[in-house]
Amino acid sequence: MTSETAAAADAVRADAASVLAAAADAAPALAAMPPRDRARALVAAAEALLAAADELVPLAMAETGLTEPRLRGEIKRTAVQLKLFAEVAAAGEFLDVRLDAADPDFVLGPRPDLRRYLVPLGPVLNFAASNFPFAFSVAGGDTASALAAGCPVVVKAHPGHPRLSDRTAEVLNTALPAGALGVVHGQDEGVAALKDERIAAASFTGSLAGGQALAAIAAARPRPIPFYGELGSLNPVIVTPDALAERASGIADGFAASVSGSAGQLCTKPGLLFVPAGLPAPEAFASVAPHRLLHQGIADGYARRRDEVLGTPGVTVVVEGGVTPDGVTPTLVETDLATLLEHRETLLQEAFGPLSIVVRYTPGEPLGEALTELVEGSLTAGVHVGAGEDSPWLHELVSALRALAGRVLFNGWPTGVAVTPAMQHGGPFPATTNPTITSVGTAAIGRFLRPVVYQDCPPSLLPEPLRDDNPWHVPQHRSPAGESSGWGSLTA
């Protein structure tokens, strides 16, 4: 290592240390900030992001190869996420305040005065994703939900868009409290931050191997911390015989668009399509222009996976596609359920790129049982049904899909994750490290909070959400004295 290289490395480490220190210093003030003030800061950050779009989008195009329409849509989505969590913060329901009045006549003996609410964990480390340089990066949903919860955020920038990461943070920090958002670069710096005792939780979007390695580090700390990882997903979709008879061409076109959008670099891309007969290869598959992948590591990994799939016995090429210096074009292959079972180790791995496998099945066979055996946890699962279709077979299939996925779709495609309160973007392992959480939707804020109870606390020492005068004007669920004698009456 030259003296210049060593000096640069020292500067990176010093910068990372400064970011961690600033986050730790900011944590008490951010936790004490009234939720409506946090909401105002998030709205201001969203407006700053939109105002900088003409600068940020070209920078993102240069670093990622994604198209301008896709990135402009994504920056709008990112601003909407920030505003959604501003609404969550302002409403105050996320604090889950519960006040149990002291009750000398409680049925199990005298009950003390109990006051429970959720408090922020502290600084959160967010490992940014490569495929959403806005929505799952510096300004993304993990950042928005953590800030709304009252947690400072340290973003480990993805190496695929470093300049964009720094500039996005600069834009957001014109609106956020000092120390609330910082960025670090480098794999070693990210690991060091994950081990740092000032970090209280971590989030991650990326590969299975990378996520498992980081989760192990988080668990091995002297004081382990929560690690919320989104790791990979096959997103199986099933087409019933009735649906195929009614609209085969439309299903094929929708499938092609879902597989090839953003060059297949989406965690919700349908990697498996189960059909009762061959699906016509739509023009949309063959006519897709080459698209550059996000970075060389993804390109190399996709090329390896494509070669493995194409070299598997019993797999037939429907649309060959390819990998060229100009980018990739979609590849579609077909096989049967027996081959998928025989070569599961090869075929049932995610291909991060525009490749999908069509699997033929026999109508009426227990497909739900086969899916349960073959497919591990997934972010999504879908089924296309005919008009008015209903049968025990279909009910069993839907039950199987519910068991393996966090979101079950009907007559639609999994790409496109609505930014809305009811969204669930998570699923059983290996889709996510924790099947009870989501990284999209208002429930995402719960990842960065923990409950605390104040028992028989003098009123002057109570935090604002637990006070009877409720200065933050947050929802308070009260259990008055005397009600325990009536518990169970609702069952009558």
TrEMBL record:
Keywords: Oxidoreductase. The keyword Oxidoreductase applies. Residues 465-492 are annotated as: Disordered. It comes from the Bacteria. The keyword RNA-binding does not apply. Residues 5-278 form the Aldehyde dehydrogenase domain. Pfam families: Aldedh (PF00171). This is Aldehyde dehydrogenase family protein. The lineage of its organism: Bacteria, Bacillati, Actinomycetota, Actinomycetes, Micromonosporales.
